[in-house]
Write a structure and sequence with these properties.
This protein has 320 residues and is an alpha/beta fold. Helix content is 28%, strand content 21%. The chain has 11 helices and 11 strands.
Length: 320
């Protein structure tokens, strides 16, 4: 696993408010700009080994959310899934072959001998993207709103504490539904990418609420494409189709009928074969009924127009 070292990270990190360089002490980071509120304030704390570079006045989280008073950060909301036995984990969450295929394309397209890849919301290694962490050529920078062994700092994706045009690629998998302003986050992704930088994103369409109060929005295929309108499309489509979407729905129907999340999970495991139906649905129909979509694109200066996005639709409701 090739994570960028903290010493290099300290030189690269900037203030999330004004993007000025930071000065680092043992237990706090401070903005170096005298005009910035974070210059004279308590600065940004360091909890464990993780700098917490969050502009709390403009975030859904608070400073006190990151420590219990003993220096322990709060736990990732998806951590409990990893405690399932491996065979059950594969039934509950099978390998994401779509992501693996697209990540292979992304990795080969990254320029240079040591490209830098930013993982937004990288508190856990995403399903199907582990090749990013195995390739010794790729320098990984990862952050989340929670600390983990695979992140170097804590930050809010609405205000990424990295300089403009500083990374070669960005991975943002199953994250944009959990941010209040996805357009703002994608604008930040566009900002930190170099002129020919690449982005790979996966975002839900027809999925039930997950991560409770930190789940905010969904996107159709057209809406997802317009979100990334500042990028040239290299590939896009469903990550999982109607069969997977039906499995999610049955799981949550049983939860509601029985008032039991456990009953829903058991039902989901028993009916896991429904995912196989995705392969039987033509792409044109899956476009209208997918569980999630992916987008692989290259940064560009211009944007799609409103008329372009209307013409972009290619689902089963296309007029002859």
């Amino acid at each position: 696993m090739t994570l960028v070292g903290l010493d290099r990270m300290e030189r690269l990190l900037v203030c999330p408010r004004c993007r000025s360089p930071l000065s680092a002490a043992r237990d706090v980071f401070s903005c170096t700009s005298p005009q910035c509120p974070h210059h004279a304030s308590a600065g940004f704390p360091v909890v464990g080994r993780w700098p917490v570079l969050v502009d709390f006045e403009r975030s859904v989280v608070r400073r006190e959310d990151f420590t219990d008073g003993a220096g322990h950060t709060r736990q990732h909301p998806l951590g409990r899934i990893s405690r399932l036995p491996r065979p059950l984990r594969r039934l509950w969450k099978p390998p994401n072959r779509v992501a693996a295929r697209n990540i292979d394309v992304l990795m080969h397209a990254l320029p240079g001998s040591a490209p830098t890849l930013l993982v937004v919301g990288g508190g856990t290694v995403g399903n199907g993207v582990d090749a990013v962490y195995r390739d010794p050529r790729v320098q990984v920078i990862a952050f989340d709103l929670v600390a983990s062994p695979v992140t170097q700092f804590i930050a809010d994706a609405h205000h990424i504490p990295l300089p403009t045009a500083s990374v070669d690629g960005v991975l943002v998998q199953a994250v944009l539904e959990h941010v209040l302003d996805p357009a703002r986050v994608v604008a930040e992704v566009h900002r930190v990418l170099k002129s020919d930088g690449l982005v790979y994103a996966e975002t839900p369409f027809l999925q039930q609420v997950h991560a409770g109060p930190y789940d905010f929005t969904r996107f159709t295929a057209s809406g997802h494409r317009y979100l990334f309108r500042g990028f040239e499309e290299l590939a896009a489509g469903p990550v999982a189709g109607p069969g997977t979407q039906l499995l999610w729905s049955v799981d949550h129907l049983v939860r509601g009928l029985t008032r039991s999340a456990f009953a829903g999970r058991v039902t989901r495991l028993l009916l896991c074969w429904l995912r196989a139906l995705d392969r039987l649905v033509p792409a044109q129909y899956a476009m209208d009924d997918a569980s999630a979509y992916y987008f692989l694109g290259r940064r560009r200066q211009g944007e799609m127009s409103a008329m372009d996005i209307v013409a972009y639709y290619g689902g089963a409701q296309t007029k002859a």
